[in-house]
Amino acid sequence: MFHGRDELVSGMARQLITHDSASLAVLGSGGMGKTSVALALLYHDDIVARYGLQRLFLSCEALVDADAIVVSLAKLLDIPSPSGDLLAAVITRLNSGSRTILVLDNLETVWLSGGAPSDAVDQLLGQLAQIPSFSLVITCRGTELPQSVQWTNEATAVLQPFSLEAALRTFQDKAARQFSDEEIKLASQLSNAVDRMPLAVSLLGQLARRGNSITELLDRWNRERTSLLRTHGAGRINSVEVSIQLSIKMLLAADDTRESLHLLSLCSMLPDGLRQSVFEQLRPHFRYIDRARDTLLVYALVSLESDRTLRTVSPVRHLVLDLYPAEPNHKNALCQIYFKIANNLHVDMDEHFKEKANAAVSEMGNLSSLLLMLIERPSEELVDAVDRFTQFV
Questions:
Q1: I need a labelling partner for 185 at 20 to 30 A (CA). Which of 28, 77, 112, 338 fits?
Q2: Residue 87 above 80 pLDDT?
């Protein structure tokens, strides 16, 4: 059950076939399908034909440092523990002449676990990448790459959410049944509600397989949000919340000021994203707002669009709203910005209305969502903003 990534995997396979030695990365946020892409690559027909049994897969999830990677590689290669340098023995075996491909899955658990890139892991990857006839593939949570390796696919390494077509095909496969045209429309709404995050779509399909109708799943999503997106146990591949929390844990280890989490909390209040103009107005309320934004981008908890809008995917947004609400001073600052946006809406049907309405429309989703979020605790400012917004609409 693998949809929407065929062109990506075929492109990576071509890079491995046309180079005796290549280094490829599969990056992205939790739940984007990085491991699935790496496994599809290992089982691609051309890769099987070229590498045969010299296709190695090592999960780093339970490893703690560079030495643990070396020990695990030695076991994969059936190298007995020598009295001397184990890394030298691994490199000698990999340098034996046979073409070999190694996938290091979930590299972030050893490379970024301490809140900063591990120099030892970086150096180890650099040594491995220099071996002739050896190709390295990593999957890593986030968007940052180890610097000691020249990555063949650096420009295309970050995974994006599913297309709607891929989301629907995955959902239908996981549900193990065909859907009517009406059900497909509802499934499209459901897929878009979770921003077509691959893990979320897959788990929803499994829930549909258990007998939940798509209408029920839509209703449950609106009530339960990310707590719905889990099946068995509490592992990251069975729970969107666990997967997202792993990224937030890494974020907090990397930022002792917590400003990146505070900025994420504000982004999560805005379903259409934090626009650059609003970001600049928030600057006085943060000490290191640019660093906070960069850290969020490194751990792929937000994406930066072409107009520099910061956007979070729906499951991340809802989990952060529930578990990490904005600090009162930050929330108040954001509200004041949007109250001003509301009060500046042009409500007179004159010759300027169309031009000014078009300029304001990009904030309508954010403004509507924020006003609804605040409505339980009305203030004079909020009432004025709602009144103005209603007139405009």
A1: 28
A2: yes
Report which residue type is found at 67.
D
Residue at which a domain ends, from 156, 182, 214 = 156
Both tokens of residue 4? 């929407």
Task: Please give the Cα distance from 263 to 297 (Å, whole number).
Answer: 12
332 and 296 share a domain?
A: no
- Please list the residues that pair with 274 across neighbouring strands: 310
Categorize the per-residue pLDDT at 235 as very low, low, confident or very high, splitting at 50, 70 and 90: confident
277 inside domain: yes
Determine contact, residues 153/27, Cβ cutoff 8 Å: no
DSSP 28-48: ESTTS-HHHHHHHHHT-HHHH
300: Cβ–Cβ under 8 A, 6 or more apart, which residues? 27, 28, 29, 30, 32, 141, 142, 143, 158, 247
* Span 183-195, pLDDT tens digits: 999 999 999 999 9
109's tokens:
């658990």
- Number of domain units in the chain: 4
Judge contact between 224 and 233, C-beta under 8 A. Answer: no
CA separation for the pair 190, 188 (Å, rounded):
5
Residue 300 falls within a domain, yes or no? yes
- The confidence band for 233, taking pLDDT boundaries of 50, 70 and 90, is confident
Domain extent at residue 11: 6-156
- Which one, of 82, 85, 84, 127, lies nearest residue 102 by Cα? 127
Instruction: Determine the residue type at 2.
Output: F
Tokens of 298: 């490194």
Question: In terms of domains, do 207 and 102 share one?
Answer: no
Residues 305 and 200 in one domain: no
SS3 176: coil
Residues 12 and 150 in one domain: yes
Residue 81 pLDDT level (bands cut at 50, 70, 90)? confident
